[in-house]
Task: inverse folding
């Protein structure tokens, strides 16, 4: 209960601060929409192949746009040395991680929810035929991205080139997650359900989320305190 | 002499091969105020960051109220003002204090926040965003944030910087009240006159070593340069 309260305090603080400045969400949303637009010129939306690779396109956009949100997660604490005050507070590092990760998760999901219909229009895809399974894949994929991204956002917060370092460190580790999310999204966007062998990818997403959430919770203290 | 509220024994800190702190041992008793002074780069802020638990000593140990300052329970009893004000520009004064009140799990964060806004003379700008505050107002709010949870040990790095006369009086008043209530204060500063008026003990750090550590004397107050003249290496 106490842990949940502390998580909520961090989550509410991050969301309130973001809603006042809209720095991360505006940049992320604009980036997602521009990339969707530009890539739509590269492919002929009527082609079947476009629909086949649409899952991949979608996750490339979500990953790049999500990184912009994740970069701000701990960088937000740098002005006025707010990170010192957070570290000084008697809040478990795990609560700090969960609160910050949830705030980024909400922001990235908001970007995805806006970007999805735009994706459908630009690529002429009826993406909502498997709506709830697609939402499940989005939730699992986004949490995996957020869990690993929040940990590395803390790790790179004091590095001068953190905007470059975060994707360089996170993207290679995300390959299994992206493979699963892309495979499943392509399937669901084409209107087919997740059955048979494809459930392996779903299990992969769940496993990835569990492993990286546990790892982040365990490493947060070391990452922040050295 | 009471129990040591701040106990720092044989502390070394290395930046690469360079020893920024060399075998520092300091004890500050409960209810005492230590003025930690020294030239730029002497190691004052490094020591204060180790006392606050932000940084790990290379060798030696630090205890605050008998506990490692990196433990959550010890952090509850420490109040810090560092070089930054540690307040969110995008939040209002009251939102900032309410936030820290909740993080420190105060029984009534709203009430504590209002009390400290009043004590620091910021009640009328309680809903103003911190980014719109003057430097002095920001510093006063930082004081409120550090004192909000009633810490038993206060670690203050240059707390008088950028304060106008009125704000200096506010800070000195809350520090005197804190000392009268038995709290322990460590002030790291270049503004010797203000610090020495409050201090019961003085430590001079020179090139990472303790050059002097003892009780504050009348000569130090009447001539703030006295300690450098007698113990500094110029």
Result:
């Amino acid at each position: 209960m106490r842990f949940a309260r502390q998580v909520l305090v961090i989550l509410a603080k991050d969301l309130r601060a973001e809603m006042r400045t809209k720095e991360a969400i505006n940049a992320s949303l604009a980036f997602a929409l521009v990339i969707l637009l530009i890539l739509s010129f590269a492919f002929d939306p009527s082609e079947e192949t476009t629909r086949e690779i649409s899952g991949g396109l979608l996750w490339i956009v979500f990953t790049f746009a999500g990184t912009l949100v994740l970069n701000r997660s701990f960088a937000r604490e740098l002005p006025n040395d707010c990170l010192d005050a957070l570290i000084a507070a008697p809040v478990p590092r795990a609560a700090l991680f969960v609160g910050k990760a949830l705030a980024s998760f909400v922001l990235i999901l908001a970007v995805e929810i806006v970007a999805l219909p735009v994706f459908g229009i630009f690529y002429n895809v009826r993406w909502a035929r498997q709506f709830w399974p697609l939402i499940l894949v989005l939730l699992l994929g986004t949490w995996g991205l957020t869990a690993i991204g929040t940990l590395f956002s803390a790790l790179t917060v004091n590095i001068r080139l953190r905007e470059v370092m975060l994707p360089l460190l996170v993207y290679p580790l995300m390959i299994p997650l992206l493979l699963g999310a892309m495979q499943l999204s392509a399937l669901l966007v084409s209107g087919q359900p997740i059955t048979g062998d494809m459930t392996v990818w779903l299990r992969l997403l769940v496993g990835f989320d569990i492993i990286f959430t546990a790892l982040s919770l365990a490493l947060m203290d070391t990452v922040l305190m050295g | 002499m009471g129990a040591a509220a701040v106990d720092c024994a044989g502390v070394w800190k290395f930046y690469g091969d360079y020893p920024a702190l060399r075998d520092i041992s300091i004890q500050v008793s409960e209810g005492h105020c230590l003025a930690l002074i020294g030239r730029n780069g002497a190691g004052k802020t490094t020591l204060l960051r180790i006392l606050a638990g932000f940084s790990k000593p290379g060798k030696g140990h630090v205890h605050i109220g008998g506990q490692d300052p990196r433990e959550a329970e010890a952090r509850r009893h420490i109040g810090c003002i560092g070089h930054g004000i540690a307040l969110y520009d995008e939040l209002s004064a009251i939102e900032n204090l309410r936030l820290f009140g909740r993080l420190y799990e105060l029984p009534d964060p709203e009430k504590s926040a209002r009390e400290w806004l009043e004590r620091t003379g910021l009640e009328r700008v309680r809903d103003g965003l911190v980014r719109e505050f003057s430097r002095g107002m920001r510093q006063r709010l930082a004081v409120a944030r550090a004192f909000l949870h009633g810490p038993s040990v206060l670690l203050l790095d240059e707390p008088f910087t950028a304060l106008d006369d009125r704000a200096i009086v506010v800070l000195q008043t809350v520090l005197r009240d804190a000392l009268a209530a038995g709290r322990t204060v460590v002030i790291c500063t270049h503004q010797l006159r203000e610090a020495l008026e409050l201090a019961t003990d003085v430590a001079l750090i020179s090139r990472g070593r303790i050059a002097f550590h003892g009780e504050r004397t009348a000569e130090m107050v009447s001539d703030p340069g006295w300690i450098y003249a007698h113990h500094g290496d110029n």
About this structure: Chain B has a mean pLDDT of 89.
